[in-house]
Amino acid sequence: MPTLNLFTNIPVDAVTTSDILKDATKAVAKIIGKPESYVMILFNSGVPIAFAGTEEPAAYAELISIGGLGPGVNGKLSETISEILQIKLSIDSSRFYIKFYDSPRPFFGFNGSTF
């Protein structure tokens, strides 16, 4: 159930959006060690964002997972998502924040119940 909610101030076309969704899904599943069938990626482009007092290209993300997170994994996720944003959108890694949440099972719902 890893969920990556990603925001950027860059307007993004449908093809690039699809590429980012696919790349992020594969990366999150591989790094956390959960099946792609459980991974959800939300991508919000063209969102007003100011970072360090400017509106230059930037991004913010939150990744929520039930387990699978920790210092090493979080670092690898940050690096990999940063690389995707750099390659696909030319967003420098110094203009990207990502926050990690390790959620208890009863605090995340699915299929009319909780995990």
TrEMBL record:
<protein>
    <recommendedName>
        <fullName>L-dopachrome isomerase</fullName>
        <ecNumber>5.3.2.1</ecNumber>
        <ecNumber>5.3.3.12</ecNumber>
    </recommendedName>
</protein>
<dbReference type="GO" id="GO:0050178">
    <property type="term" value="F:phenylpyruvate tautomerase activity"/>
</dbReference>
<keyword id="KW-0202">Cytokine</keyword>
<dbReference type="Pfam" id="PF01187">
    <property type="entry name" value="MIF"/>
</dbReference>
<dbReference type="GO" id="GO:0004167">
    <property type="term" value="F:dopachrome isomerase activity"/>
</dbReference>
<dbReference type="GO" id="GO:0005615">
    <property type="term" value="C:extracellular space"/>
</dbReference>
<dbReference type="InterPro" id="IPR014347">
    <property type="entry name" value="Tautomerase/MIF_sf"/>
</dbReference>
<keyword id="KW-0413">Isomerase</keyword>
<keyword id="KW-0964">Secreted</keyword>
<dbReference type="GO" id="GO:0005125">
    <property type="term" value="F:cytokine activity"/>
</dbReference>
<dbReference type="InterPro" id="IPR001398">
    <property type="entry name" value="Macrophage_inhib_fac"/>
</dbReference>
<comment type="similarity">
    <text>Belongs to the MIF family.</text>
</comment>
